[in-house]
Specification:
Strand 1, helix 1 and strand 2 form a beta-alpha-beta unit. Strands 1, 2, 3, 8 and 9 form a 5-stranded parallel sheet that branches. About 35% of the residues lie in helices and about 10% in strands. It is globular and about 55 Å long. By secondary structure, the chain is of the alpha/beta class.
C-alpha cells in the first residue's frame, strides 16, 4: 500500500521553495522533554536489572531520565542561549504540572511548545487517543496561554486515525512522518495538516542508544547532513531538524558535540534557525 497521507513527489522535480533573504537551509532544533511514570515500566532503559527481571520502581532507569530534566535540559539551554538560537520543545503536557519551571524559562527564551502526548506513552496504547490529544492541547494552553500548533507523537507513534484527529482538534503541523526534507500538505478528512521534516538520522536515540556510536557522531553526522542540504538548498530550500533528548545528549561527555554543531553551521551565510511554527508560516505563505 502506498503512503495514505501524501502523494508521491520526487524532491528534485518540484517547483523551488525560496526562503527570505536567499537563505538555503532552515535549521530546526527540537528538544524532546518527556515525563516517565515511576509507577510503570520505563519508556527506555540504559541499565538491565540483575537476573533480567522487570522491577518497579525501576530506580536506575528512572534516575537516568530524571537527570535529563534536572541537568541535561539546562545544558541544552545554555548552549542555545549562547548561540542566540530558539528551540522547539516537544513536550509531554504533564511536564507543565510536574516541572513548571522548565516550561516557564523556555517560554521566557522565546522557545515554542509542541504537543508530544500527555505522558511518554505510545498513543496506540491509549484507550481514547482523541482524549489524550485534547488533554495535551488544553494542558499546554492552560500553562502557556497558547495552544500548541504542532504535534509529535511519543515515539513518533500514530494510529491510522491520528492525523485526522489532530487536524480536527486544531493542530496545524505534525512531524511524525520522517520522509522528506521539505514540508508538504498531508491528506486529512477535514482541515489542513502540514508535515514538517523531522529526523531519525540526526537523532540521539538511534545514534547513541541503538547504533552505540561514540560522542562525536552527532556532530560529524550533523555536519555532513548540513553540507548536503546547504548545497541542495541553493536551488530549493531544505529543512534540517536536530533531535535531542536531555538525558542522552545533555550528559557531560556529549554536550560539547551538540555545541559544535551550531559553531559549525553558524559559519555559513544563508541559514536561518526557526521554530516549527515559523517553518509552518513560511511554508503556508510559499504554496
Amino acid at each position: 500500500m502506498t503512503n495514505p497521507r501524501a502523494d508521491y513527489s520526487p524532491i528534485f522535480h518540484r517547483p523551488p521553495l525560496k526562503l527570505p533573504g536567499d537563505a538555503r537551509v532552515v535549521v530546526w532544533p527540537v528538544i524532546n522533554v518527556e515525563e516517565w511514570d515511576i509507577n510503570a515500566p520505563m519508556a527506555r532503559t540504559v541499565l538491565p536489572t540483575p537476573q533480567g527481571v522487570s522491577v518497579m520502581p525501576d530506580i536506575a532507569n528512572y534516575g537516568w531520565f530524571d537527570y535529563g530534566l534536572r541537568v541535561g535540559f539546562w545544558r541544552f539551554k545554555q548552549v542555545l542561549d549562547r548561540h542566540g538560537i530558539r528551540a522547539t520543545v516537544s513536550l509531554n503536557a504533564s511536564v507543565c504540572n510536574s516541572y513548571p519551571q522548565l516550561v516557564e524559562e523556555s517560554l521566557q527564551a522565546g522557545w515554542e511548545m509542541m504537543g508530544h502526548g500527555f505522558i511518554q506513552r505510545a498513543i496506540n496504547t491509549e484507550p481514547d487517543e482523541r482524549d489524550v490529544i485534547r488533554r495535551t492541547i488544553q494542558t499546554i494552553k492552560d500553562r502557556t496561554g497558547t495552544a500548541p500548533r504542532g504535534w509529535m507523537g511519543p515515539g513518533l507513534a500514530e494510529t491510522f486515525n491520528t492525523p485526522d484527529i489532530l487536524a480536527e482538534e486544531g493542530i496545524e503541523y505534525v512531524c511524525d512522518w520522517c520522509n522528506d526534507d521539505q514540508p508538504y500538505v498531508m491528506k486529512v478528512k477535514s482541515g489542513r495538516l502540514v508535515s514538517i521534516p523531522y529526523t531519525l538520522e540526526i537523532n540521539d536515540i538511534p545514534i547513541y542508544l541503538i547504533q552505540h556510536h561514540r560522542g562525536p557522531e552527532i556532530f560529524e553526522r550533523a555536519r555532513d547532513q548540513f553540507d548536503t542540504l546547504y548545497h541542495e538548498g541553493a536551488e530549493s530550500a531544505r529543512v534540517m531538524a536536530i533531535s535531542t533528548h536531555p538525558y542522552i545528549t545533555g550528559v557531560p561527555h556529549r554536550i560539547k558535540y551538540y555545541d559544535m554543531i551550531f559553531d559549525y553551521i553558524r559559519q555559513f551565510a544563508g541559514v536561518v534557525f526557526w521554530t516549527g511554527s515559523e517553518i509552518l508560516d513560511w511554508y503556508n505563505a510559499s504554496v
